[in-house]
């Protein structure tokens, strides 16, 4: 299942180094899809990850070695928010066919705009 995790940290650079260093512990458990932060505040971390289940994630985070890594990374544990994401979207957002469709619509809009501008000038 995909989840979005949000948390506040004391320092993005320190958190990112700690997160990357702890990657071997997440192998086989968590697949990172997006690792980043809010544009306006780099200390507000955002992760989108694939995990087996919410229960497995809670158990993983509560293991002493993982809880220690989280604490040492500078994350404010009280700020951690986990949001399960929908598993299916009505269409793949970034598929090549979707992007082709978007480009086609843009081309049609441009052509109509050009036609209208020509009609106005006559």
Give structural notes.
This protein has 5 helices and 4 strands; from the N terminus they run E-H-H-E-E-H-H-E-H. It starts with a strand and ends with a helix. It has a 4-stranded antiparallel sheet, with no helix packed on it. Strand 2 (31-37) and strand 3 form a beta hairpin. The chain has 122 residues and is of the alpha+beta class.
Main sheet, how many strands, which sense, barrel? 4 strands, antiparallel
Q: Say how many strands there are.
A: 4
Radius of gyration: 22 Å
Principal-axis shape: elongated
Poorly predicted runs are none
The helix content, as a percent range, equals: 40-55%
In percent, how much strand structure appears in the residues? 15-25%
* Neighbour order of strands in the largest sheet: 2-3-1-4
Give the overall average pLDDT.
86
Helix and strand composition category: alpha+beta
Assembly state (oligomeric): single chain
How do the helices and strands follow one another from N- to C-terminus?
A: EHHEEHHEH
Distance between the first and last residues' Cα: 58 Å
Total helical segments? 5
């Amino acid at each position: 299942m995909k989840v979005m995790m949000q948390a506040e940290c004391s320092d993005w650079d320190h958190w990112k180094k700690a997160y990357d260093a702890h990657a071997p512990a997440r192998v086989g458990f968590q697949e990172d899809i997006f690792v980043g932060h809010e544009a306006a505040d780099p200390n507000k971390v955002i992760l989108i990850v694939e995990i087996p289940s919410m229960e497995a994630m809670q158990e993983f985070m509560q293991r002493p070695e993982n809880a220690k890594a989280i604490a040492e990374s500078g994350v404010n544990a009280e700020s951690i928010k986990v949001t399960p994401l929908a598993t299916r979207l009505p269409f793949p957002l970034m598929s090549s066919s979707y992007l082709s469709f978007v480009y086609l619509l843009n081309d049609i809009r441009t052509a109509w705009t050009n036609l209208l501008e020509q009609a106005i000038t006559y």
